[in-house]
Structure formats: structure tokens, C-alpha cells
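Q: Could you predict the 3D structure of TetR/AcrR family transcriptional regulator?
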Amino acid sequence: MPKGLTKRRPQTTARLLEAAQETFAERGFYGSSIEVISERAGLTRGAFYSNFRNKEELFFALFDLHAQRVVDRLDQAVGELDASDDPVRALFARAVTVDAAERRWYLLSTEFTLHAIRHPETARLLAERDRALREQIVGILARLFARIGRRPTADLDSLARLTTAVYEGSLAQSLVEPGELAPEELAVTYLPPLFDAVSEPVAPGEDAEQA
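A: Sure. Here are the predicted C-alpha cells for TetR/AcrR family transcriptional regulator:
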């Protein structure tokens, strides 16, 4: 491949991802064609297929970008955990942020999840991505418990699943009834006591990360 094409590839990929985000937000996953995405990016179908095999692969590239944003946000929140009387509540209030980009991602990811449920191979690929993200969240939860001087007594992978379910379920209800429920309300109200219930204090001088 000529060197010029290699150097241009990251720029082409970035343009396609940006165009896909905008198109998916407007038309949904099913309503967005490769032609429209390519045209919006100012590229040809050939340029699209030189970067992605299909729309599913494009979605997974967007998934990876979103997952990194989630990990970065949670990492920063734990790293800057304050010394308030209820630091876990303060952390969730800060970490559970919903802006226009998060709303668009929720709509797209929900639609894609339904698509994956109908297609077993796609479901397998989505589960792999979810598992990789959850592994990073488990590491962040372990750091959180260590920072607050508690040891988890429950499986952290299951706790990560439950935390995600609370967040996504709360967001769905909030988007349907924005005047009745704030996106972060359920997580901020119910996850802190849950985290207390599935952990125990660490004795002074004891390593919080020990089993």
C-alpha cells in the first residue's frame, strides 16, 4: 500500500466515525446506510470498505470509543474521591453524567442490542466487548473499595453487571419521563447502601485488597 494511503487512513477512519455518530443519531442503526454515512464523511463507498467491512464493525469501533470514555470518567472520579461523609454517593453523583452525546449513545446501543439479540454471532461479538469493558470496571470497583477502606464480599463481576443495569435502566426511565426522574437519581440513591451491604470494613493496618 502506498505510504500516502497509510498516513491518510487514521483521518479517513475518524471522518467515518464522526459521520456515523451523526447519522446513527438522526436515523438509527437500521435507517443509516453506508452510502449516507460515506457521503456525510465526504468519502466514497470504497473508502468506507477500506476501513470497515460493514455497519456492525463501524458500530463496534464507536463502542470502543465510548467504552474508553466511560473508563476514563470512572477512573478520574475514583482518583479524585473526596473525604465527605458519603464518598460513594458523591462519586456516583459525579460519575453518572448524561449529556447529549450520552443520550445519543444510549439510543444507538439499545437499538444495536436488539439487533444483536436477533443475530447470535453479533450477540457473541457484543458480549466480548461488554466483557472487556466490565473487566475494566471491576478493576475500578476494586480501587473504589480500597479507597474507602472496605473489602467486597460479593463477586465484583456481578456487581459491575448490576451497577450497569441500574444505570441503564434508570437512564431509560429518565429519557421517557425526564420531568419525573433525573438520570442519576436511582444510582445515587440506591447504589451507595448496596455497596455497603456487599462489603465489610477493613481492620486498621490490613490490606483492603486481600481476599
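Q: Anything worth pointing out?
A: The first strand starts at residue 150 and ends at 152.
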